[in-house]
């Protein structure tokens, strides 16, 4: 069966009715980009940059970050590389960080942390801009809930560019800016985000947690952590549809995207970009190549209209 999957590596990720699907990889450390290329990934859909910051006593310098981001960009050889800005807080903390938030999942995390710590953010943004001279870098902001956070991020990027200009350090002129859709509020009120950003990436791991009020790390309530809850699927569908209308790409980069049992359902929601662990890529591609998107879309839309649970085994 592994040999069959190896043959799949170079086959196009296209449905039976001719819809081309983008399959990208999630990575946590720069070296993993090699596995992404080997699995035939179309790019990096999620580089969780916080892993460069964790498990060490100090912060990585601009140069160190630049080297890490540039190495991924070079490994991917022109394919897009989506680098998420620091997503610290809650389950991901810095060594020696003694702050105890009342509720870390709802606290000063991710983009909130970065905007509150402008030096740390600026250092990362300069490293990202510098890495973008070697290829196509897409900057992805985690945990966005307000439009003013998008505006503040753009301002931070602009001042990072000015500083590099002043220092005479080369950087790429083009970058794209996107946001994670992982807080229900932005999926519900998605229009201004779709309009002002270049792309969106749905983080289902957190979207499920915040929609269902289930701590994603709490084993006592793990049975209630339900990716198939119709409310979760409606938020995903709403986001995909808004992207489709605006002509902006929308990906799913949470665990759902790499679960081959859910591939047809996600195609039925209209998803055309999946990002997952490199090891999951070929199993998902296999599902895609056996799917009829149009039939799936009809079936999934009618279930969602009635907020019915979708029976994965009954999908065409
Ligand atoms: C998510 O929330 O779905 C996601 C992809 O990010 P993380 O798992 O790193 O929070
Ligand atoms: Mg997340």
UniProtKB/TrEMBL annotation:
Record carries keyword Transmembrane: no
UniProt catalytic activity: L-histidyl-[protein] + phosphoenolpyruvate = N(pros)-phospho-L-histidyl-[protein] + pyruvate
A single GO BP: phosphoenolpyruvate-dependent sugar phosphotransferase system
Presence of keyword Ribonucleoprotein: no
Active-site residues from the entry: 253
GO (cellular component) term, any one: cytoplasm
Domain spans labelled PEP-utilising enzyme C-terminal: 3-292
Functional description taken from the UniProt entry: General (non sugar-specific) component of the phosphoenolpyruvate-dependent sugar phosphotransferase system (sugar PTS). This major carbohydrate active-transport system catalyzes the phosphorylation of incoming sugar substrates concomitantly with their translocation across the cell membrane. Enzyme I transfers the phosphoryl group from phosphoenolpyruvate (PEP) to the phosphoryl carrier protein (HPr).
Record protein name field: Phosphoenolpyruvate-protein phosphotransferase
Lineage, top ranks: Bacteria, Pseudomonadati, Pseudomonadota, Betaproteobacteria, Burkholderiales
């Amino acid at each position: 069966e592994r040999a069959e999957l190896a043959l799949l590596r170079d086959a196009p990720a296209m449905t039976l009715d001719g819809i081309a699907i983008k399959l990208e990889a999630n990575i946590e450390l720069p070296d993993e980009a090699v596995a992404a290329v080997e699995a035939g990934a179309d790019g990096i859909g999620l580089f969780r940059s916080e892993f460069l910051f964790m498990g060490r006593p100090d912060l990585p310098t601009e140069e160190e970050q630049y080297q890490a981001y540039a190495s991924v960009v070079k490994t991917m050889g022109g394919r897009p590389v989506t680098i998420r800005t620091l997503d610290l807080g809650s389950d991901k903390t810095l060594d020696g960080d003694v702050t105890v938030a009342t509720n870390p999942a709802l606290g000063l995390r991710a983009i909130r942390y970065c905007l509150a710590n402008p030096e740390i953010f600026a250092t990362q943004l300069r490293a990202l801009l510098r890495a973008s001279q070697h290829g196509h870098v897409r900057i992805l902001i985690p945990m966005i809930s307000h439009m003013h956070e998008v505006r503040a991020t753009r301002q931070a990027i602009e001042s990072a560019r000015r500083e590099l200009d002043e220092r005479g350090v080369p950087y790429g002129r083009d970058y794209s800016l996107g946001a994670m859709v992982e807080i229900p509020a932005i999926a519900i009120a998605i229009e201004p985000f779709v309009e002002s950003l270049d792309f969106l990436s749905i983080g289902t791991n957190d979207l499920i947690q915040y929609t269902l009020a289930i701590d994603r790390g709490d084993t006592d309530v793990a049975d209630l952590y339900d990716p198939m809850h119709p409310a979760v699927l409606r938020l995903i569908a709403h986001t995909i549809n808004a992207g489709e209308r605006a002509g902006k790409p929308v990906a799913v980069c949470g665990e759902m995207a790499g679960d081959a049992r859910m591939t047809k359902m996600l195609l039925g929601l209209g998803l055309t970009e999946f990002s997952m662990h490199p090891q999951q890529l070929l199993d998902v591609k296999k599902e895609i190549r056996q799917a009829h998107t149009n039939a799936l879309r009809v079936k999934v839309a009618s279930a969602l209209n009635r907020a019915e649970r979708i029976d994965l085994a009954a999908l065409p």
